[in-house]
Amino acid sequence: xxxxxxxxxxxxxxxxxxxxxxxxxxxxxxxxxxxxxxxxxxxxxxxxxxxxxxxxxxxxxxxxxxxxxxxxxxxxxxxxxxxxxxxxxxxxxxxxxxxxxxxxxxxxxxxxxxxxxxxxxxxxxxxxxxxxxxxxxxxxxxxxxxxxxxxxxxxxxxx
Length: 159
What we know:
By secondary structure, the chain is α/β, with parallel strands linked by helices. The chain has helices at residues 19-29, 101-112, 150-156; strands at residues 11-15, 34-40, 53-60, 63-69, 93-98, 116-124, 127-134, 140-145. InterPro entries: 3_dmu_93_MTrfase, Glyas_Bleomycin-R_OHBP_Dase, PhnB-like.
């Protein structure tokens, strides 16, 4: 069976140097997740320690993501961008539609651990259970409990 084509649009995350730790954490947290492909530094590749993750394609609950570690000084591509000025911003977040309070609480506990809680878990005017957190890697997440089945119905709706 041929491999499914990569989606046209996906989230691309650029980490300073902990992409592999982040990918392992995220894929262990979300069901139906896997690392699809990795590219690692080769021996004697300038700037990179051998074996360090450079790039990965992975899925979280079936959604595709790509990530990279920023090239270190001396590595190919380091001079192409002002890498030291780049950081994640809470203005951009990954939204997670949770079907149950238990699912919400599990994600909230894991993603907020060693991170920052921007809006604590609770009821808000727009949601019965919502939270906004930045995890220990600097990636922001908006967690929301949605009415049961809403996510499945929206995904099944014809385009």
